[in-house]
Specification:
Length: 294
C-alpha cells in the first residue's frame, strides 16, 4: 500500500535575497523549516538555486563564474546546515540547489536531507541553453531514487522535469521538482511538466519555484513562479489533479496531504493505467510511420 501512511507535502515559493551574513541565512532557513514543520510537513521542498544564498552570505562576487565558484566553496557548509534543520525538525528537506564542485567540475546540485542525518546529492542532468552558454556548469552524476518508508522519492531539478524518460527511469511515488524560472512562460513549462509526470507515472509531484531577485547575480536576477502539488487526475485525486496551488510570487509554503494507500488505489482501480501500460506504448512507438500527404 503506497504510501503506507499519510504524508504531508510542502512546496516553497521561496524569495531569494542577498543576505548580509551567515547568521542571517541560518535564521532565515530555520524560520522557513520551522514553518513547514509547524504545518505538519513530512517532506518539504526548497527551489532550484535557493542555495545561492550561501554564496551571497559569504562573498561579494560580480560575475556568474565567480558566483558559481563562491557557491561551490560554500556548498558543504550549506548542506550541513540543511541537514541539521532536517534532523532538528524531523522532516525530509530538499534543500534547493546551488552550484557545487564534484568530480572536478561544477554542477547544479540539490541536497536531500533526511531526519536521520543522511544527505543525498541530486544533480541536474540537462542544462538549459542559458546555463550552457553563460555558466561554467556541467551535467552532474546520474540520477538515483531513494526508497523510503513512504515510497520512492526522486528529484528532477527544473528543466530535467520536462524530459519524460528521466522520470520513467526513476519510477517515483513522490517526485520533487525544485525550479528557477525568470518568466511566466518558464514557470508554466515546469508546472505543465509536473502535471504531466504525475499523470504518466501515477505519482505525486511537488513543484517549488524561486521568487524574488538578486540583481548582482545573473543566475537569479529575475524569478517568478507559483508553488504546486499535483497528482494524477483520477481515482482518489482532484479532477484536475491539483492537490494544492499557490499564488504567483506569494512567498510561503503550499501544503497538501497524500492519504495512505492513495497511489496504490489509483494505480489498481483508476480509469486509466499509464504507469502499467507505459512499456506497451514504448514498445509500439518504434513502429510509428509518417504517411505522405495526398
Amino acid at each position: 500500500m503506497l504510501p503506507p501512511r499519510p504524508v504531508r507535502l510542502a512546496a516553497a515559493c521561496y524569495p531569494i535575497e542577498a543576505l548580509s551574513g551567515w547568521d542571517v541565512l541560518e535564521s532565515k532557513l530555520d524560520r522557513w523549516v520551522a514553518e513547514a514543520a509547524a504545518e505538519g510537513a513530512g517532506i518539504a521542498v526548497l527551489p532550484e538555486y535557493a542555495g545561492l544564498e550561501a554564496a551571497f552570505a559569504l562573498s561579494r562576487e560580480t560575475t556568474t563564474a565567480g558566483w558559481c565558484e563562491a557557491s561551490a566553496a560554500a556548498a558543504g557548509r550549506y548542506a550541513a546546515l540543511c541537514a541539521t534543520l532536517a534532523h532538528d525538525y524531523r522532516l525530509t528537506l530538499l534543500a534547493g540547489s546551488l552550484p557545487a564542485r564534484a568530480h572536478g567540475r561544477l554542477v547544479n546540485r540539490a541536497f536531500l536531507c533526511r531526519p536521520d542525518g543522511q544527505v543525498i546529492a541530486q544533480d541536474k542532468q540537462v542544462l538549459t541553453p542559458w546555463e550552457r552558454a553563460e555558466t561554467p556548469l556541467a551535467a552532474g552524476a546520474p540520477l538515483a531514487a531513494l526508497d523510503t518508508g513512504v515510497g520512492r522519492l526522486a528529484t528532477l531539478v527544473c528543466y530535467d522535469s520536462e524530459f519524460p524518460p528521466l522520470a520513467r527511469a526513476l519510477a517515483p511515488d513522490i517526485l520533487l521538482i525544485p525550479s528557477c524560472t525568470e518568466a511566466p512562460a518558464g514557470d508554466a513549462r515546469v508546472r505543465a511538466a509536473a502535471r504531466a509526470r504525475a499523470l504518466e507515472g501515477q505519482c505525486v509531484t511537488v513543484h517549488a519555484p524561486l521568487t524574488g531577485a538578486v540583481r548582482q547575480c545573473e543566475i537569479v536576477d529575475a524569478n517568478t513562479g507559483a508553488a504546486g502539488i499535483f497528482g494524477p487526475p483520477d481515482l482518489g485525486f482532484p479532477d484536475d489533479g491539483a492537490l494544492a496551488l499557490g499564488e504567483r510570487d506569494a512567498p510561503g509554503w503550499v501544503v497538501a496531504d497524500l492519504p495512505a494507500g492513495a497511489l496504490s488505489a489509483t494505480r489498481a482501480e483508476g480509469a486509466v493505467a499509464p504507469r502499467a501500460h507505459m512499456a506497451e506504448a514504448e514498445a509500439r512507438a518504434p513502429h510509428a510511420t509518417v504517411r505522405p500527404a495526398r
